[in-house]
Specification:
There is one protein chain. By secondary structure, the protein is of the alpha+beta class. The protein has a single domain (about 20-110), classed as ADP-ribosylation fold (Alpha-Beta Barrel), CATH 3.20.170.20. It is about 15% helix and about 30% strand. It is built from 3 helices and 8 strands. The strands form 3 sheets. Strands 1-4-8 form a 3-stranded antiparallel sheet. A hairpin with a 2-residue loop joins strand 5 (about 80-90) and strand 6 (about 90-95). The longest helix is centred in the middle third of the chain and has 8 residues, at about 55-60. It is globular and about 40 Å long. The two termini are about 20 Å apart. Mean pLDDT is about 85; it is low at about 1-15.
């Protein structure tokens, strides 16, 4: 999966993807066909994810000290670990309870922080 594949919405609206934000350094350690473990899996027991609508807020809140991030688009139907939506910060966020199998990742996008110091999602393309 290349780093420049678009993270726009999937064509099938019945299954909405979830998204995980990570650093280029962490994602660079993952091998094809393997699995990914975010640091939060060890400390909190799950991998934090966001919906598309939550992504910019999450990037800017939790990755403000980074110059760039990697956003993974994940197909929930392909996950081997349990996905739960749970309340946090007045919203419902998706959490993956276990490792993220790489074959569930259907898009990977590198996003650099803008000149004004904030992350922005690229415009969606149909």
């Amino acid at each position: 999966m290349g780093m420049n594949e678009r993270i726009g919405r999937d064509r099938n609206p019945a299954v909405l993807p979830v998204y995980h934000i990570t650093t280029p350094e962490l994602w660079g350690t993952v091998s094809d066909g393997g699995s990914y473990q975010a640091p939060s899996l060890g400390t909190e027991g799950f991998i934090h994810c966001s919906t598309r609508e939550q992504l910019e807020r999450s990037m800017n809140r939790f990755f403000s000290g980074c110059d760039s991030v990697i956003v993974l688009r994940i197909d929930p139907d392909l996950l081997r670990s349990e996905l739960k939506y749970e309340p946090a910060d007045g919203d419902e966020f998706p959490h993956i309870y276990g490792e993220l199998n790489v074959d569930a990742v259907t898009g990977v996008e590198y996003i650099a922080r803008g000149e004004e110091g904030r992350f922005h999602l690229p415009d969606e393309r149909e």
